[in-house]
Amino acid sequence: MTRQDNTLRAKSCQDNFSLFRVTSSVRAQTTRAQAVSTTTAVKMAEYANEDLLYTANIGYLEGVEAALKAGADIDYAREGDDINVSGRTALFFACFAGHAAVVRLLIRKGASLTKRSSETSSAPLHVAAARGHTEVVELLVQHGATLDIRDAYQKTPLMMACICYKVDTVERLIELGARPDLTDVYGLTAKECCTEDELNEDREDYDCERKEMMKMLQEAVETKLLRCCNPTCGKPGYRSTGTLKLCGRCKLTRYCSRDCQRQHWTVGHKKCCGHDACSDDAPNPFWQLVKRQLRKEQK
C-alpha cells in the first residue's frame, strides 16, 4: 500500500467520522426538540385544562371555546385533597353557577353528564337543582340526564332542591317526572328533606316555601302520578297501572312507548344509562378526602 493510499484511507475515515458526528448531533437535536415539543404540548394542555375550569366557572363563553380549541379535555377534573374542587368538571362548575350558555356549549361538545364530584359523588344535575338553576336543569334533562340520579347518600336532584328550598326547581322536576317517593340512605323522602334545614326553620319566608313544596310533593305522592322520562313527551302514567315501563338497564327512567325510549336514548340517555346509581358498597368519597387531608396535615 502506497503512502497515497494511506492518505486517501485516512481522509475517508475522517470524513466518515465527521459525517457520523454530524448525524449523531442532528439526531440528538431532533430528540431534544421532540422532548421539548412534547413537554410544551403537555404544559399547554395543562394550562388549557385549567383555563377551561376557570372560564366555565365565571361563565366566559369565548374563553371556554378558546380552551377547548387549545386542546383542553372537556371532562378534565382537578384531583387532590381540596374537597371544594376535587373531581369537578367544567360542566359541574357551569351548572353550579347557572351559566346556561356555557352548559349548552359543553353538552354540545360532548361533556359527560354523569361525571361526579369527589366529596359527595354529586352529578351536574344534583348541583343545578340544589342551586335552583331551573333552566340548567331542563337543559340537562333534555339531553339525557337521569331525573332520579343518586349521589353517595342516595339523594336525588329533587331531594337536593327540597333541602335548599328551591320551589320553582322542585315544581319543574315533578313536572318532568322526578319521583317523590324515593328515599335516601337515611330513609328520608323528598318531602321529609324539606324539614332538614334547621338553620332557617324559624324564618317566615322559608316556612312558606317549605309548606308550598310539601303541598306539591304530597299531591304527587297521593296521585301516584309518574311521567314518561322522554322530555319531549311527558305522558302521564300511574305506578299502580304499569302503563310506563322502566329502562331495562338503569331501572330509573320510565317510558310510555318504545319510540320514546329510542328517542331519549339517542339524545343522551345512552351516555348516562348505567352511570346513574351510586353503589352503597362504595367507600364514601367525602370521608376518603377528609382522611387524606388529615394525613397531609399530620406530616
List keywords for this structure.
299 residues, mainly alpha, 4 strands, ANK repeat, metal-binding, Znf_MYND, Ankyrin_rpt-contain_sf, Ankyrin_rpt
Summarize the SSE layout with pairings.
Elements: H1 3-58, H2 61-69, H3 90-97, H4 100-108, H5 124-130, H6 134-142, H7 157-163, H8 167-176, H9 190-193, H10 204-223, E1 225-227, E2 236-238, E3 245-246, E4 254-255, H11 258-272, H12 285-298
Antiparallel strand pairs: 1-2, 3-4
Helix pairs in contact: 1-2, 1-3, 3-4, 3-5, 4-6, 5-6, 5-7, 6-8, 7-8, 8-10
Q: In one word, what is the shape?
A: globular
Please mark out the parts with pLDDT under 50 across 5 or more consecutive residues, or reply none. Answer: 32-41
Strand content: under 5%
Rg calc: 28 Å
H/E order of the elements? Answer: HHHHHHHHHHEEEEHH
Q: For the largest sheet, list the strands in their spatial order.
A: 1-2
Please identify the structural class as seen in this structure: mainly alpha
Helix content: 55-70%
> How many helical elements?
12
Describe this structure in words.
By secondary structure, the protein is mainly α. The chain has a domain at 224-278. The protein has twelve helices and four strands. Strands 1-2 form a two-stranded antiparallel sheet. Strands 3-4 form a two-stranded antiparallel ribbon. Strand 3 (245-246) and strand 4 form a beta hairpin. Helix 6 packs parallel to helix 8 (167-176) and helix 7 runs antiparallel to helix 8 (167-176). The longest helix is centred in the first third of the chain and has 56 residues, at 3-58. It starts with a helix and ends with a helix. The model is unreliable at 32-41 (pLDDT under 50). GO terms for molecular function: zinc ion binding. This is Tankyrase-2-like.
